[in-house]
């Protein structure tokens, strides 16, 4: 191939990764990107500054309308998209804001996924179509005030009372909690950890919203309070007992983060690149200085390495060969690198980097939450450490 017949170098796709996408992949990406540009980007700085997501129910219905909720699932009104297509959607959503991607991830990869994989036929028919349409928002209750990284220590308990179940306990840091119509709640029972499908209008259930956050401010985060919540026997998820249930859901959600974190990083890189081309100091654009070019080059390398890693894991998921340790590999690398890209971008923008007129500081603070939810850095290091050495260091 002659040099003249090659495509020109694209600063926004330096490795030509778009060549990995099918026309269907691009259509999914472009649909979600267009929706986010119209419905989120004009408003998200204000939502973030005020610490609210005021249009969450309307946004959920719109996301359902474009097929973004539970999009990897099949049947029940779900899109049946590939893992790569779901990942591309996560990139575009998180390029707008991590809170929007969290809304979609919790709805589809946690609450809907749990019901779809472990629920009864009746539970699936009752909840999944309305959740796929965004008419009912779901949440996922696993983390507790005293037990985050160690869910085996959960104190929320379900006991049998005749043919019913009684649930008591607390869950913490629950995305969508106070706006949810249904909660998937995990509780310890005499037979092991079980999942329960809890309509949020059940007496004894409440979800006070958590305020005063400095991260994920354009997101609804709540505590779940369960005081003698009485549920019928058919509220339990019948197809799983033990931590395998919630952990498999978390693995599915972590996969979306592997992609989504690169969306936040991309937004910051592109903001820094545009700024460096236009901002002048000492009589020339700062992008003409070697140190700024070095920062941009390093950001581009890590960003597109992360996207390439996400693509690889997506193909493995579509092939049915993706292992949980590989998801930990992706989550550990991509979120850590995304934060570093955001911080470097902030230095390129100087004082303007802390202004909400630019997306950089908003993404940087959001990623501080993404770094620790769905498994902290330390947990994923230990997952990989165990896989590499054969020794379990979690309790040693």
UniProtKB/TrEMBL annotation:
Cross-referenced Pfam families: Acyl-CoA_dh_1, Acyl-CoA_dh_M, Acyl-CoA_dh_N
SUPFAM superfamilies: Acyl-CoA dehydrogenase C-terminal domain-like, Acyl-CoA dehydrogenase NM domain-like
Domain of life (superkingdom): Bacteria
Acyl-CoA dehydrogenase/oxidase C-terminal domain ranges (all copies): 242-388
Cofactor: FAD
Record key words, sorted: FAD, Flavoprotein, Oxidoreductase, Transit peptide
An annotated GO BP: fatty acid beta-oxidation using acyl-CoA dehydrogenase
Domain Acyl-CoA oxidase/dehydrogenase middle: 139-229
Keyword Flavoprotein: yes
Single GO MF annotation: fatty-acyl-CoA binding
Annotated ranges, domain Acyl-CoA dehydrogenase/oxidase N-terminal: 22-135
PANTHER family xref list: GLUTARYL-COA DEHYDROGENASE, MITOCHONDRIAL
Family, as annotated: Belongs to the acyl-CoA dehydrogenase family.
Protein name as catalogued: Glutaryl-CoA dehydrogenase
Gene source species: Actinacidiphila yanglinensis
């Amino acid at each position: 191939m002659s040099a003249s017949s090659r495509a020109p170098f694209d600063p926004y796709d330096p490795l030509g990764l778009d060549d990995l996408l099918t026309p269907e992949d691009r259509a999914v990406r472009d649909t979600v990107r267009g929706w986010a540009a119209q419905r989120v980007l004009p408003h998200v700085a204000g939502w973030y500054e005020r610490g609210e997501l005021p249009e969450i129910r309307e946004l959920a219905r719109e996301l359902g309308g474009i097929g973004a909720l539970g999009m990897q699932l099949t049947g029940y009104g779900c899109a049946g998209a590939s893992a790569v297509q779901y990942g591309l959607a996560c990139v575009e959503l998180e390029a707008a804001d991590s809170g929007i991607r969290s809304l979609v991830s919790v709805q589809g990869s946690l609450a809907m996924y749990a019901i779809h994989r472990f629920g009864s036929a009746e539970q699936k028919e009752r909840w999944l179509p309305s959740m796929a349409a965004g008419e009912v928002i779901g949440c996922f209750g696993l983390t507790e005030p005293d037990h985050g990284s160690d869910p085996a220590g959960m104190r929320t308990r379900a006991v049998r009372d005749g043919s019913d179940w009684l649930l008591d306990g607390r869950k913490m840091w629950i995305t969508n909690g106070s706006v949810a119509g249904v909660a998937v709640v995990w509780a310890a029972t005499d037979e092991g950890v079980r999942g329960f499908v809890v309509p949020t209008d059940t007496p004894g259930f409440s979800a006070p919203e958590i305020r005063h956050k400095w991260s994920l401010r354009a997101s609804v985060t709540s505590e779940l309070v369960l005081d003698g919540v009485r549920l019928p026997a058919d509220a339990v998820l019948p197809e799983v007992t033990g931590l395998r249930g919630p952990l498999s859901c978390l693995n599915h959600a972590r996969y979306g983060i592997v992609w989504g974190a690169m969306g936040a990083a991309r937004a910051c890189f592109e903001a820094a690149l545009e700024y460096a081309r236009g901002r002048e100091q000492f009589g020339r654009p700062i992008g003409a200085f070697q140190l700024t070019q070095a920062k941009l080059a390093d950001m581009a390398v890590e960003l597109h390495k992360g996207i390439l890693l996400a693509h690889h894991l997506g193909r493995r998921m579509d092939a049915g060969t993706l292992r949980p340790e590989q998801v930990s590999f992706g989550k550990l690398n991509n979120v850590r690198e995304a934060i570093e890209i955001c911080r470097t971008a902030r230095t390129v923008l100087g004082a303007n980097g802390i202004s909400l007129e630019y997306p950089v500081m908003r993404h940087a603070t959001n990623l501080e939450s993404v770094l620790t939810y769905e498994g902290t850095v330390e947990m994923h290091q230990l997952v990989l450490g165990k896989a590499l050495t054969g020794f379990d260091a979690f309790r040693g």
